[in-house]
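Could you help me review a protein record that somebody else here produced? My question to you is simply how this chain folds and whether the tokens agree. Thanks in advance; the entry in question is below:
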Amino acid sequence: CLSNQRKLSKDRDRKTAIRS
């Protein structure tokens, strides 16, 4: 699902931002 992929990408980016 495109929406699911978009959510995963956003969550991954958010997690990376927190780590950074």
Remarks:
- Residues 6 and 12 are 10 Å apart (CA to CA).
- The two ends are 28 Å apart (CA to CA).
